[in-house]
């Protein structure tokens, strides 16, 4: 995972995770959220990484694990600590970086998947 902060490329290696989406905080300069998954998102769990820049690169501020791969992330427009991620199980997770545990809430409304001309109920 690479990020450019202040003109210099910064790198943080997270063994066993592959980054899918990254988003800089609109509130805190340099703070970066990254949605990641194991095994390229085909199987395994996911991790939300919250990163801050430091002199030697990026420092892990906080991380949250989820039971399925995380594929996208975005910051709340109303709260500097809140993010939303989406995962391979069809759910959305609401996270608060001010708290060490999470998620705050899970929205799982997706119950069908369209596959080759018909809906498949999960």
UniProtKB/TrEMBL annotation:
Family indicated by similarity? Belongs to the WD repeat peroxin-7 family.
One cellular component term from this protein's GO annotations in UniProt: cytosol
Q: Is Protein transport included in the keywords of this UniProt record?
A: yes
The gene from which this protein is expressed is PEX7
Q: Which domain of life is it from?
A: Eukaryota
Q: What is this protein called?
A: Peroxin-7
Principal cellular location given in the protein's record: cytoplasm
Asked whether the keyword Transport is assigned, the reply is: yes
Organism field? Aotus nancymaae (Ma's night monkey)
| Record keywords | Cytoplasm, Peroxisome, Protein transport, Transport
Question: Where found, per UniProt?
Answer: Cytoplasm, Cytosol; Peroxisome matrix
Task: Tell me the PANTHER family matching this sequence.
Answer: PEROXISOMAL TARGETING SIGNAL 2 RECEPTOR
For molecular function, the Gene Ontology terms on record are: peroxisome matrix targeting signal-2 binding
GO BP annotation list = protein import into peroxisome matrix
Q: Which SMART domains match?
A: WD40 (SM00320)
